[in-house]
Design brief:
Length: about 160
Amino acid sequence: MDATEFAHRYVVRFDDLRPSAASAGETKPPCQSERLTVVGEASERPDAGVGVNLAYLRCEPNEGFSSPSYPGWEVLMPMNGRWRITVENREDVELGPWDTVVIPGGTFHSAVNVSDQPAIMLGIDPGSANTGVLAAESIAELAATLSDGGEPSKLPK
């Protein structure tokens, strides 16, 4: 595989992402968001075989998104701004940039941008039942890198 083919298949530029259609659970106020799918469900890119859904969710102040209860876990990580996370039957929690919450499978949850400017949240969930372990291992490796003093790369604005 040459460099051009590799880049087409595996490199995703944030500035090239376009909002995809929101799912039904994300269209009711205050749940107004733009989903920028990187890999997985609704992606226009070829299947890279990573086995996860990864998307950025961009929301204006006081807007957000909700997710129905589904079997797999979901990881949410704000890229900027402040977010209020609500998980059924639990107290709300507020997250800032690079904070991370893992939502257990089978629980309804929502997130609202509580900052005074547009903000972006990263969402990751298993692409299929047989790849969740691989994704969890990758997330664990990222967490270990950051806890050992590794620096996350600069985020796009």
